[in-house]
DNA sequence: TCAAATCATACCCGATAAGGTATAAATATT
DNA sequence: AATATTTATACCTTATCGGGTATGATTTGA
């Protein structure tokens, strides 16, 4: 399972968006996008979803990665 | 995809835990467990993970449910 | 190599999440 | 039915998230 952090970074760059643009398009603050991409763990769920929605994703339940199988 | 809310409620009851016990075992406040099970969307990510960890789960990326296929 | 764009870090402020607790409502147990 | 357990609602306080912004670092590209 790919961490949210890396998913967002990859997806954003794939779409050639800057953090500023991503912030604007998703309606969150720039600060938030930065903290998000830097792996801050105390973010608010709804804000994270707000960003993920831009990529057709949302937060959901996944297995706890102990050893980690990969995919995607 | 099962919403986090329902997953937690189901899992907790399956393990015959009260909200109080769940709160204690996961190390979050009782209030948090309540708000979590009532679908509050502004919760902090790390706290949600703290609870999910008890069930071997964590928060991750899932598809946005438009029409919703079921499973599980 | 220099300039421009992008990103990281740090500060302040207002809003609110989280915890604690108390009480009421609802469920379960006897 | 009466009681005990569990859950919901409400109030208060503290800590901090999120936004804004400014500055410095890093990356990109001309």
UniProtKB/TrEMBL annotation, chains A, B:
Species name: Pedobacter steynii
GO molecular function terms listed in the Swiss-Prot or TrEMBL record: DNA binding
Protein's name according to its UniProt entry: Transcriptional regulator, y4mF family
HTH cro/C1-type domain sequence ranges: 8-64
Family annotation (Gene3D superfamilies): lambda repressor-like DNA-binding domains
SMART domains documented for this protein: HTH_XRE
């Amino acid at each position: 399972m790919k961490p949210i952090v890396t998913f967002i970074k990859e997806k954003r760059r794939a779409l050639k968006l800057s953090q500023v643009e991503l912030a604007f398009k998703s309606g969150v603050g720039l600060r938030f996008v930065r903290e998000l991409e830097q792996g801050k763990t105390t973010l608010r769920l709804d804000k994270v979803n707000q960003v993920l929605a831009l990529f057709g994703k949302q937060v959901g339940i996944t297995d706890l990665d102990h050893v980690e199988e990969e995919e995607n």
